[in-house]
Each structure stands twice: as structure tokens, then as C-alpha cells.
Design a protein that fits this description.
With 170 residues, this protein is of the alpha/beta class. The chain has a domain at 30-144: P-loop containing nucleotide triphosphate hydrolases (Rossmann fold), CATH 3.40.50.300. The chain has helices at 10-26, 44-54, 102-105, 109-113, 154-165, and strands at 2-7, 32-37, 69-75, 86-93, 117-121, 134-141, 144-151. Strands 1-7-6-2-5-4-3 form a seven-stranded mixed beta sheet. A hairpin with a 2-residue loop joins strand 6 (134-141) and strand 7.
Length: 170
């Protein structure tokens, strides 16, 4: 399944991230692997920031370019879910990787294989990653960007369906 969205500017990209978070919440905030592809400055971290803010993360949400991974604890207590769970979100940046095994050597196997929300920038830099549930590609489009959302699993398709059915969210 494929869904296209146009974001006219940075705030619109953050709003799309927030809409994606609401789609995840409608599905009970399942653990997912979401990959984000696009050139430098395409808005990957901006979209992730909007998503994490909408999931209740407070404080600074920064690019994991230098740290490789930023970890956020999401307490679903205040997220209007009908069950209370805690979930970890990993924001991972693989830009500096050059060989397929580097992500394993960096200790990312547990994060990418567990019951977490994994947001992975530059997945094309690290071969052998577990399959993404949802693949996002951000492409410059005039002064804005086009975001292509493509499912990789049935869980990803459910997220896209939830997002598409809530047109007013974006």
C-alpha cells in the first residue's frame, strides 16, 4: 500500500509526524520498525520530532547523527489508550555506517529486533536490517517535500490505512 503526502514546510512535516503518531495510537501503539529515507535536510528528523511530541515526549528531540541512537520512554498512561503500557522509542541514524554488519557491531540488534518503536534514518546504509513495517521516503518538492509512505508488513499497512482514513489529521 502506498500513501503520498505533501508537506509545504517544516511545521507541516511536524504535523504529518503528529498525524502518524495518532494513527499509531488508534492501533494501540504497536511496536514497529519505521524507516526514513531522504537526502540530508529532507525533514526526516523533523517528522520524527512531530511524531514523538504527539506521543508525549518532552524535552529536546535531536538528530541521532553523532550518538547513533537517541532513546525515549513513552508512557502511554496519558495517551488515551484503553490499556497502560510503557514503550521505548529508538531514533537511530545509520548515516555513518559503511558496511552491513556495523549496526550489529554497534549493539543495535536488540533495539531493532525487540518490542519497541524503532525510527531508523538512512536504512539503506546498513544491509541486513530486519524488515521495516513502514517505509517513509522524503523528497524535496519546491519549497516543501513529498512524503511517500509504503507498507512493508501488514502492521505497516494498518498504519497507512489508519492515517488515510483520518484525512483531517494532516
Amino acid at each position: 500500500m502506498l500513501l503520498l503526502r505533501h508537506c509545504a514546510d517544516e511545521p507541516a512535516t511536524e504535523r504529518l509526524g503528529a498525524a502518524l503518531a495518532r494513527a499509531l495510537l488508534r492501533l494501540g501503539l504497536p511496536p514497529l520498525r519505521i524507516t526514513l529515507q531522504g537526502d540530508l535536510g529532507a525533514g526526516k528528523t523533523t517528522l520524527v520530532r512531530g511524531l514523538l511530541r504527539a506521543l508525549g515526549v518532552r524535552g529536546r528531540i535531536k538528530s541521532p547523527s553523532y550518538a547513533l541512537v537517541e532513546t525515549y520512554n513513552i508512557d502511554s498512561f496519558g495517551l488515551q489508550l484503553n490499556h497502560c503500557v510503557g514503550i521505548t522509542a529508538y531514533h537511530i541514524d545509520l548515516y555513518r555506517f559503511y558496511t552491513p554488519d556495523e549496526w550489529l557491531d554497534a549493539g543495535l540488534g536488540e533495539a531493532l529486533g525487540g518490542d519497541a518503536l524503532c525510527l531508523v534514518e538512512w536504512p539503506e546504509r546498513a544491509g541486513g536490517l530486519p524488515p521495516a513495517d513502514l517505509q517513509l521516503r522524503l523528497t524535496a518538492d519546491g519549497t516543501g517535500r513529498t512524503v511517500e509512505l509504503r507498507d512493508g508488513t501488514s502492521a505497516g499497512a494498518a498504519v497507512i490505512e489508519s492515517l488515510a482514513s483520518a484525512q483531517a489529521d494532516v
